[in-house]
Amino acid sequence: MPTQRALLVAVLALAAFAPTLLGAAPARADWIVEQLSNAAPGMSGETRVGRQEMHATEGRVLIVDKDAGRWAGIVRLDERKVYELDMVKKTYFERPFSYYEKHRSRRDREHADIRRRWRNESDDRVKESMKAEMIKSGIAPDGKTVAQLERTGETRQIGPWAAERVIVRENGKVVFDMWVTRDLPRPEPVFALYRGIGLFAPEVVGKTDAIDGFPIAIDVRIDVGGPFAGSQHAEVIRVREVDEIPKSTFEIPDGFEKVDPPKSEGEGVKVTGEAPPGATIACAHCKKVVSEADAIYFLNPLERFKKYPVCSDECKKGFARSLKKR
Questions:
Q1: Where in the chain is the domain with CATH 2.30.170?
Q2: How far is 26 from 39, CA to CA, in rounded Å?
Q3: What CATH code is assigned to 4-98+144-258?
Q4: Where are the alpha helices (DSSP H) in the chain?
Q5: How far apart are CA 219 and CA 38, in angstroms?
Q6: d(CA 259, CA 253)
Q7: What is the pLDDT of residues 84-102, one digit of tens each?
Q8: CA 92 to CA 63: how far, in whole Å?
Q9: What is the pLDDT of residues 248-280, one digit of tens each?
Q10: CATH class of the domain whose range is 267-325
Q11: What is the DSSP letter of 11?
Q12: Whole-prediction pTM value?
């Protein structure tokens, strides 16, 4: 079964290739986009390039595995949900957008905690080192999010399209690295999926709105932790504009059974003294075994914010004290 991170980054990259498909446009058309991507769900290590196809209409997207035909994903902005389908077992599960939003909120809390510890640090040398590592990691000491849009002036031919490289950064770190063409028609851009799913800062989405053109190749960096941390490359190989895709294309097929999302990728397992079902991890402080979904993390600023899993706020404080003594 595909991983939720892999499905999501496939959705994000495909949406980037047709950024207006998910919102209203003056001259509305539907699109079918074929791409090659290294983040296809179900692929070993998510590194082998695979062929995917997207069907997109206003507010709805279907992504299909074209190599093995094992999986599909549906994004519904009207329902604020992502559906993942196993085409072999004929099962599916769903995730609300709030599931993805919580991961960015968690990352924001971690960054706020890092800034608090930096402000409270009494050793000037340690404090200066912490600040340098924060800036390298894209964590603004003042807590502000600053997005930059960089038109590099670099050009490249990708298939039949002439493209220009455009980069979007968040606090200096690259989030989107795109090759954009003006050879394809594009109505007024509305990045509805980026706004709706909550994994990117509003400031970053605002910069992508200003991009004039159709992204043909893209690298997306998702830095919110959990199952979504990582990067994806994808490249368009074929684009078709069609009058209308039937709404039924974006519905769960008849005969598919709804199942629960995998526990190893979700929530709902409470911390206990015994190993819970699904993926588990040992607390770095007390060594208690907890589910990965329930673990919280201490980020050590003197090790480039290396993550140490802990099972509670008390263990987080205790582990921080033990590192300081070392």
A1: 267-325
A2: 32
A3: 2.50.20.10
A4: 4-17, 97-120, 124-136, 192-197, 202-209, 313-325
A5: 10
A6: 14
A7: 999 999 999 998 988 877 8
A8: 14
A9: 999 999 999 999 987 644 343 333 333 344 567
A10: mainly beta
A11: H
A12: 0.71
